[in-house]
Structure formats: C-alpha cells, structure tokens
Amino acid sequence: MNKAEAVRKYLEAHSEAGPTEAARALAGDGVKVSAKYVSRVKIRSRKKLKASRLRPYPARTLEDALEIPRVMFEYNGKKLWSAGEVARASLHVTETNKTYIYAAAAARDHGLVVRVRGTGQMELTALAREILAAVDTGRKKEKLLEAFLAVKLYRQVFERYQGLSLPEGEALSRALERDFGLEAAKHEEFLRLYRANCAYVDLESGLTGVEGREERDPPTRKPQRASAGTSRRAKVQKAYLISRSSKEQVRPEGFFSELLRALISPAASAAGLTLEDGPQKDDELLAMRPSGSLLSADLAIVELSEPSPRVFFELGLAVARGIPLALLKAEDAGPVFGEDGSKEILAYNPKLWPTTLEKDIPRVASHLRRALRAPETRDNPEEMKAGVA
C-alpha cells in the first residue's frame, strides 16, 4: 500500500480528522507524511467523489433545453443577454434557481447556447437558430437529431442500438454500466430522459424526412417502351427483393423494413427499376412455393446480412432460372458463401443515417445497373451454382 492509499483509508475511517491529526496518527503506524500531503490527498478525493456524482448527460430533456434558446430567438434576436436576463425572460426565475441552472446546462450540452468568454453573457449557436427558424419539418428533424446526439452518452447509446431498440432488464443495465460507464443509480433517470428525447425527435417513426430525404431521393424513371428489335435487356425494369431476417435475429427490430424503405427502394428507383418483395416470414422448407414475381423478374436483389432458409430457397430459384443477381450485405456481416469472392457482394453501412445513405444510395444503384449489364446468366446458370454450393 502506497502513502496516498494509506492516507485515503485513514480518512475514510476518520472523516472528522484534520490534516495534522491524520499525519500524526499515520506516523504512529509507520507512514511518514506531512499535513500538507494529507490535505492534498483529501482535496483530490473530494474532487473525484464530486465528479462521480455528476451526470454524463443533461438533467433536462431536449424539449426543456430549447425553452431558453426559443425566448432568446424570439425576443432578443442576435443581441447578447446576461444569465440573469435569460433566466427572468425564459423561466421567470433568478439565475441561481436550480430550474434555470439545469435548463441552461442542458441547452449548453445540446449545443444550443454558448457563454461569451469574458462577458458572462449568453449567445445562441447556429444550430439553435436553424432549429428555431426551420420551416421544413425534415430539416428541423435533422437539426433536432444533431442536437440530441451532441451529448456523447446519448450518441453512444443511439449508435449501439439504432435509436429506441434497446434491450430489456438486466441486459440493458449490464450494458449501461459495463460498456458506457454509467452507474446503476442513474440508469432509471438516464433511460427516462433518453426515451423522452427519442420521442421528441420522433425517432419512433425512423429517420423519415431527415435531411429532406423525400425531396432528395432520385425521381422514379418512367418505364420506356421497347421497340420490336430491342433486346430483352433493354426493357429490363422489374427487380425482386430477396431479403428476410433469420429467426435468431441479431439486428434491431425493424431494421430490415427500414433498410428497404431508406436504402434499397431509393437505389432501385435511381437505377430505373420497379421493386417487388416477397413474403415477410420464413415458411417450413417443404411448404415453400416459388413466387411468380421472382420468376418473372429481370433482376434479383439479394440481401445477405442475416439469410434465412427462404432467402437461400429463392436465391437457388434465381440461380436455376438464370436471373441476374445483385448481392448486398451490411459491412459488419460475415461471409456468406465461405468466401465472398465468388460473386461481387456490395457492402453498405448498416447505420442507415442520412450521411451514410447519401453515399450508399448511389453506390447500390450503380451496383444494380452493373448486375443488369453483366453477362447473361440465364444462358449459363451453372456459373452461379458453384458459388452458392
């Protein structure tokens, strides 16, 4: 045991002892330290204890945190206000009131206000102005999400669980304590605030509208009529999606439906394809029946992140029929066919964030077009059978 540990243990057992008294008592036990050294250890211990009691997240919701910026935006424009003026105008309290202190801290932690150095005055950030001035709901949601994720712990949990798809009970408690360093006493409060913020940002409905995605998606191309002499490939316009999660699903609930909505459908549209998908559940293998939509498709889009028996059943049918294949999987998914080199498999970012979708939609669309331009697999189905075996 070193001197600092000896001092800490003595002070834990004798909390009322002063530095001089503690130094004398420790000297009697063979630990020679000065009263100044005891005092330094005592101060450091208090700072560590105080830090451990601090929340690594705001004590108020994002909605509450926006009240201060809202009043500053509506009544003060770009002028600076002192903390006292902000407290009286927004919450009708003094700047020393706990209600204001917690709300101001939340506004700061979410990146909505800053203190101007040397003046003690407060100023709105560009993020707060964009939220409060937003007319387009998609743009406002995008900026609210940015403010929500400005808090490090919220961002870490959101990235791990893709929003509200949290585990339950002990599994969640263990993850919060072990992986995120949040002590058990704060779990209930943190989860209440996290869920309230997710609801306020409207994450229950997914990321629809974020970055104005509805307006930004490439327009659906109108199908072109094929002339009498046009080859079959020139009139390709229908794709069939083979995608199902396995029963032992690893991805959060709703991941595959969001994948279809946010990535695959826009990419198929950008590639000039209409898209159909098959049954949304796995049947018993012997009861599976071929889908007419698959058999008449010009392209089979196969999502292989968590393949199920039906995925392999429909993939086998597509191979046997010589239907061109476009294979996809998440970046964090393992190899499907032993080695993925048997056929090009495009990996996408499974976070499905606006920033990742902006890159992945064009990549997937290009992948679909390449698959349609590939050598005619219908004439040589054996080419893919070897890869699937």
Task: List the defining traits of the structure above.
389 residues, alpha/beta, Rossmann fold, 3 domains, 18 helices, 8 strands, disordered C terminus
**Approximately how much helix is present in the residues?**
40-55%
Task: Estimate what percentage of residues fall within beta strands.
Answer: 5-15%
Global mean pLDDT: 78
CATH class of the largest domain: Alpha Beta
Oligomer description? single chain
Order of helices and strands: HHHHHEHHEEHHHHHHEHEHEHEEHH
CATH topology of the largest domain: Rossmann fold
Major beta-sheet overview: 5 strands, parallel
CATH architecture of the largest domain: 3-Layer(aba) Sandwich
- The poorly predicted ranges are 205-234, 376-389
Quickly count the helices: 18
How many structural domains are formed by the residues?
3
Q: How far apart are the first and last residues' alpha carbons, in Å?
A: 63 Å
What is the number of beta strands? 8
Question: Helix and strand layout, with pairings?
Answer:
Elements: H1 3-13, H2 19-28, H3 35-53, H4 62-65, H5 67-76, E1 81-82, H6 83-91, H7 98-109, E2 113-116, E3 121-124, H8 126-133, H9 137-148, H10 152-161, H11 169-178, H12 187-201, H13 213-216, E4 238-242, H14 255-270, E5 274-277, H15 292-295, E6 299-303, H16 309-321, E7 325-330, E8 345-348, H17 354-373, H18 382-388
Parallel strand pairs: 4-5, 4-6, 6-7, 7-8
Antiparallel strand pairs: 1-3, 2-3
Concise overview:
This protein has 389 residues and is of the alpha/beta class.
Written overview of the protein:
With 389 residues, the protein is α/β, with parallel strands linked by helices. It folds into 3 domains: 3-53; 62-205, no CATH class; 229-388, Rossmann fold, CATH 3.40.50. The chain has 18 helices and 8 strands. The protein has helices spanning 3-13, 19-28, 35-53, 62-65, 67-76, 83-91, 98-109, 126-133, 137-148, 152-161, 169-178, 187-201, 213-216, 255-270, 292-295, 309-321, 354-373, 382-388, and strands spanning 81-82, 113-116, 121-124, 238-242, 274-277, 299-303, 325-330, 345-348. Strands 5-4-6-7-8 form a 5-stranded parallel beta sheet, with helices on both faces. It has a 3-stranded antiparallel beta sheet with strand order 1-3-2. Strand 4 (238-242), helix 14 (255-270) and strand 5 (274-277) form a beta-alpha-beta unit. The longest helix has 20 residues, at 354-373. It is flat.
